[in-house]
Amino acid sequence: MNPNTVAVMEQCTSLSLQGMISFPEVVRKLHEVGVERYHADFSRGEKTYYLPGGESHVASFGHLPEPIAESFSPAGVEAAIKEIQRGTIVYAEFLRRVMAAGCVGYFVQITGRRALYFGRKGEIHLEPFPGAS
């Protein structure tokens, strides 16, 4: 894998946690280096980035201090998404809120322009990117 691609993946992970980059910027940067999707796994504290040819890279974001709620609340997940889209919270707070809503992780499908949030029992919330149909 191209070292620049790995650097962009690591940078997006780090800058997101620091609240220094927005989701649209992350998607743009990842798309530019050929990433088609990524998976955030809250239980493992890592993101796995996937390229179309089957290559992948795992970036650790460390153990998250907040427990993941037992029950999945699609409304809670959606509320956190709306807050981060408005810019009233940063990524670290977004993570805290979706975990409190029972979210154990999510997939961002860059090429499909949507994100899929899921709970412990297979519950899901599908969120199209803003402006995507």
Question: What can you see in these coordinates?
Answer:
The chain has a six-stranded antiparallel sheet with strand order 3-2-1-4-5-6. The radius of gyration is 14 Å and the shape is globular. With 133 residues, the protein is an alpha+beta fold. A hairpin with a 5-residue loop joins strand 2 and strand 3 (56-60). The chain contains four helices and six strands. The chain has helices spanning 3-17, 23-32, 74-86, 91-100; strands at residues 37-41, 46-50, 56-60, 103-109, 114-119, 124-128. The model has no long low-confidence stretch (mean pLDDT 94).
Overall geometry comes to globular
Average pLDDT, rounded to a whole number, is 94
Number of helices: 4
Q: What is the succession of H and E elements?
A: HHEEEHHEEE
Which structural category fits the helices and strands? alpha+beta
Low-confidence stretches: none
Q: Helical amount among residues, as a percent range?
A: 25-40%
Largest sheet: 6 strands, antiparallel
- Taking the alpha carbons of the first and last residues, their distance comes to 32 Å
- Report the sheet-strand fraction: 15-25%
What is the radius of gyration computed over CA atoms, rounded to a whole number of angstroms? 14 Å
Strand order of the largest sheet: 3-2-1-4-5-6
Tally of DSSP β-strands:
6
Provide the fold topology.
Blueprint: H1 3-17, H2 23-32, E1 37-41, E2 46-50, E3 56-60, H3 74-86, H4 91-100, E4 103-109, E5 114-119, E6 124-128
Helix pairs in contact: 1-2, 3-4
